[in-house]
Amino acid sequence: xxxxxxxxxxxHEHAEHAAHAAHAGDALVSQVTFTIAVLAVLAAVSASLxxxxxxxxxxxxxxxxxxxxxxxxxxxxxxxxxxxxKVYELAADQAGPKAGAYVTLAAREEADQHKAQADAKALEExxxxxxxxxxxxxxxxGRLTIASTLLHMAIAIATLAIILRRRWPxxxxxxxxxxxxxxxxxxxx
Length: 189
Hints:
Blueprint: H1 5-22, H2 27-93, H3 99-164, H4 168-187
């Protein structure tokens, strides 16, 4: 599926032109119309993959933002535990009947602080992995955009072969489609 209804209509229109031209009986026209039909399918698949990669990049970036927000919360929590620990240490330093309890509470706050710091670091690693996934999907999206563009150009140029009744536009379209397929394959390497 493509994002644009106009793009889907364009593929349908190419198929109609191909069917009409096939009835003309000209071998070149039949070959070119078959090529156009195949290219229309390849362009649709490439555009669909392009959209999928774009969606995946956005999703991975959202995951990274969420993980960063959670890490920030954990760092804030760790800082509050450090502050509470310091308050209990100061209270314990004052001596008195509750000094032992304050030492225990300070130790508990320190343990909670270390756990919050570890959680924050784990969330930052999760963020980094999500950002790496996003970059992979963005790179694929860009390459698939090039592939789709080349395939659409090949369709348009192949149509010229029918209009001009010449083979060279068809050969140019085949070369462009090979470049488009190469770009699509390159997206996943």
